[in-house]
Amino acid sequence: MHIKKLVGLFILSLALVNCKEEPFQITQTQIIPIPNSIELSDSFFTIDETTGITYDDNLKVSAQFLKNFIETGSQITLKKGNAIQFLIDETLEPEAYNLEVSKNEIKIKASTDQGSFYAVQTLRQMMPVGLENGAFSENEILIQVVVINDKPQFSYRGMHLDVSRHMFSEEFIKKYIDALAMLKLNTFHWHLTDDQGWRIEIKKYPKLQEVAAYRDETLVGHYSDQPHQFDGKRYGGYYTQEEVKDIVQYAKERFVTVIPEIEMPGHAQAAIAAYPELGCSNQPVEVAKKWGVFEEIYCPNQKTFAFLEGVLDEVVELFPSEFIHIGGDEAPKTRWKNCEHCQALIKREGLKDEHHLQSYFITKMEKYLNSKGRQIIGWDEILEGGLAPNATVMSWRGTSGAVEAAKSGHNVIMTPTSHCYFDYYQSENDDEPLAIGGYLPLEKVYGFNPIPEELSTEESKYVLGAQGNVWTEYIPTERHLEYMVFPRMLALSEVVWSQPENKNYEDFVSRLENFHQRLDALEINYANHLYEIEGDLISDDGKSYYELKTLTEGKNILYTLDGSEPSVNSKVYESKIPIIESSIIKAAVFNEEKRLGKTFSQTINYHKAVGAKITIDKQPHQAYSGSGIEGLVNGISGSDSRYGDKEWLGFWGEDIEITIDFEKAKKVDTIRTRFYNGKGQWIYAPKQLDFKLILDDGSIVYDEKSLNENNNKIVDLEYIFNYPKGLDIKVKSIHFKIPNYGTIPEGKQGAGNKAWTFIDEIIIN
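Request: output the structure for the sequence above.
Response:
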């Protein structure tokens, strides 16, 4: 980053503390997403009742936004004049801008109103937060003298919202769009149809509003909880076409494109409930009342294609976006396999199988949308059976789909579960609100690189950008939704806007801490984990230590080792803590007066394998690599309520072999571990484990242990050694073979796909 003229800034900031409230202070590190270049000076421009504004007519929207922001948030009314100037600069790229603040004037230069709008969003963050909610009471606004040149890294910068599982008000949708605009995100992906509800009015098909928009009741708790319980309450609704038009126009005025998603051929149970003839069985079904993947799928016949064309005719009239998202994900083929029409169609068209039938389906719908001047986006399953000619791929199941599509010359939008699923847990705290599972902390979002390393420079040009996804099975309220999205949306905004060389996580955290004031003023319910503590057990020279760290600077970590609550009188953490026995570490972040965050607690089970050498023949999936394979013998167990935290390791469809070698042979009485068994998330405990024990005399013992297949979320394994009496037998090495469960059976979520294996701490005593 290019920073000039910092001399005197610190002295000036101190002076401001004495004469103005805290929000007046501004440094380059407060802007999110961080601009490409900033040149700071040590003086200020003043906005007051004498300040005038002028703009080119082509920049009217952005200029009016700034004028309304100032006049609504304060008592200041801007006059006509040249103090604030909006100017056309044809040399700049469409979304780029130049912001020049001097002591006498502000100049905003851009080639488009959109670029100018982004300059305004930057300028907005340089003003007091009181302007956000009308709480600003001063008669002048000070803005630091600065020159900013800025443009986005990626052209597609998106956020998704699923309203099918839970619906949100039109007012809230607008608030959501406001947040996107503030952070220079330019796309709102609106997931409008699914098995659990159809949320858009289609006048040609009134039963979509009468039947498909409502479910009789809703699953209570998590899908993995057995037996399933329901609330007995009818749930639903839909957005009228007038409401949709209003939202689309509202977004347009903030340079946010709304891309609708109409799911096909799968995730169609709600539509088939309204019109059973759209399914292969022609039998009545109900709108789904629990989560997951269902076998109901559109039958590829003329009735279905006529229906979908009729739906899309109305959709394209409502949404002027270039792209229409057609889903294409998680489409079970069971109905097609058992359908005489489908099998005859496969034979008649010379298709290889049902996957190619899906490609046939998607290609047919793509041609129809192309005839309307539109392009399709689909989830990466649309690659199966051959990709439709002009399709853009939204890659969610890792990055392999993106790589395949880009290498084939297709545009790609990155949204992998590993970094972009904001319905995942963001903290390991036990009091986090219920989520679908997984673990995606803020730092991991921030560290995302949307360009897969497998792509060449030329191929990487097909990566349009990235998007955060919010699926709402477990997010019933607007405050809950905000909590899941913020601040991870802020991290994503920097991923897709800012240049990689300007990114720094510690700096981002400092800016985020300041940005909390703005979120408070906007009444956005965000998750605040900045004052929380992260801990890791590490080995050094054969000894074990525990490290503590926190994100924010200028504060102390105070801790105890006896399980008591830390207080201002507890020991200050200064260096790694030696661990020689099982312990309960509790710690918290304090300033000089009080505790700021929640108490961090970690139980360490100092068993015989802690610090031992561990090897594994497969690498865990990159989305679920936790703290590495050493995390399986670090004395720390994973969460009881979720998979995907840093202590669980995940493997997709692979048999794995693990070896633990002791430096010195040890007497071993038990081996214990456990497996996550969240079948609703395609995670299955193995059916058995095979053991090979190498004893200190060189002999080898083979054994196996079966696991009972059940619906418990956690499946425990305990292996007890039965030594002959009187013999002092010690073990030098333990080898485990853990076979993958295999293919998920029909009728289960993810049927036909490989199962996941998730394993926790291996405890040896």
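The longest strand covers residues 37-47.
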